């Protein structure tokens, strides 16, 4: 089955490395990906700051454009074990243009297949980040 969206070998390698780094994660880490609207290629977006908290991640996301976010989210479980799920955030701000919403909606399943996350969560704005910790820990 062919797809409209493409992942360059570099992007696939970056995703694979990030997945593998999660088992050793001691703090939150995240990578942001965008879709080039002309080539339909998924691309890593270099952040301005190191993303090591939910606040930093929320600050890095654009106000008017969707993004895909991969996040290693280490925490201690209720029984004291250190767990670090790979979380796939589908960021879809309500102020995004309809064309962009459709572009990202068309790729979300392919991205899930490529990433194989432990958890998938949709977020729409910064307020959704307030409940994100509880959502991740409750799964």
TrEMBL record:
It is found in: Cytoplasm; Nucleus. It comes from the Eukaryota. Keywords: Cytoplasm, Nucleus. Its main location: cytoplasm. The keyword Disulfide bond does not apply. The keyword Acetylation does not apply. GO terms for biological process: actin filament debranching; negative regulation of Arp2/3 complex-mediated actin nucleation. One of its GO terms (cellular component) is nucleus. One of its GO terms (molecular function) is Arp2/3 complex binding. It holds the Pfam family Cofilin_ADF. Belongs to the actin-binding proteins ADF family. GMF subfamily. This is DEBR0S1_02586g1_1.
């Amino acid at each position: 089955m062919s797809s409209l969206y493409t992942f360059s070998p570099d992007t696939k390698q970056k995703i694979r490395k990030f997945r593998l780094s999660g088992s050793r994660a001691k703090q939150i880490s995240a990578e942001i990906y965008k879709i080039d609207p002309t080539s339909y290629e998924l691309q890593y977006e270099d952040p301005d700051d190191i993303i090591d908290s939910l606040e930093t991640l929320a600050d890095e996301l654009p106000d008017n454009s969707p993004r895909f976010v991969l996040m290693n989210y280490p925490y201690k479980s209720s029984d004291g074990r250190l767990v670090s799920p790979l979380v796939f955030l589908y960021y879809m701000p309500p102020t995004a243009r309809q064309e962009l919403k459709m572009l990202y909606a068309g790729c979300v399943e392919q991205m899930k297949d490529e990433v194989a996350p432990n958890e998938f969560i949709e977020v729409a704005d910064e307020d959704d980040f307030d409940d994100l910790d509880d959502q991740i820990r409750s799964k």
